[in-house]
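Page 47, continued from p. 46.
Same chain as before, 329 aa.
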Amino acid sequence: MTDQPPTPEQFRQLVNDIEAEVGRVIVGQQALIRQTLITLLAGGNALLEGVPGLGKTMLVRTLSQTIDCSFSRIQFTPDLMPSDIVGTNLIVEDESGRRQFQFEAGPIFANLILADEINRATPKTQSAMLEAMQEHSVTVAKATRSLPEPFFVLATQNPLEMEGTYPLPEAQLDRFFFKIDVPFPAIAELVEIADRTTAAGSPSAGQITQGQTILEMQKLARAVPIAPHVTEFAAQLLTATHPGQPSTPQIVQDYVRYGASPRGLQAMVLAGKIFALIDGRFNVAYDDIRNASLPAMRHRLILNFDAQAEGITADQIITHLGEQISVKA
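Result:
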């Protein structure tokens, strides 16, 4: 790849090459790989929800190998402190005996960060991630330090074990570009996983591109045009998640306490642009918005008790809205 910005065709080819290379290590999970890569190309952060052992750590490490970026894993526990993440100032002594403060960077100073079981840390520690995720910088002792680019946080949480956890507040959930559900593998995929991981040699991913090219791809994605009526469709889809408005569908009135924030609209539009580029188009279609709506809004909807009692999920509501909202020809 040259120093020139990638063309739309090069963008599409790079995405396909990265997905193929990651697929040499990760069995199946095509939707997971695609949505994680879209989040990276959008410059956002992803929240993965799935039971342990489904390859979330391996996915981020493999991605870092394909784009030649640094990888860091942070295991969140109740006793983890903010300084364990961002770093701290240490008192060091030079050769002349003088003492001075020296900053010791924490594991957050990497390109791709895996925040494993983020909901096991206290809110104070979780808040240490907020500035990093939003501003791509951290502040220690009144000094602000920029994080390396590209910067991508992939946080995980276990939907089964809720004892001893600190659920993420809505404001922090809203900072995640996508929430991606990690499904359990099918039988054929389980057999392939067993064959790969118990053989004499384990597959590894090679370098496909570099971090600077990812930054250029992020710029290209934002340059994709979107027609006003497609943006309006995305806005209508988001507005329909808010109860109490005259045009709100009955399913939302019955089961939703609070709808998605404007960040959900931003995520749908930007992800729609990337979906279009991957599909070889330089314009955003309605289906691109629909494809982005589930991971962009499922964590931004707050359901009421009736929804929990009747087993109604955010995915069901968002899918229903996408089918019911009329589009302009």
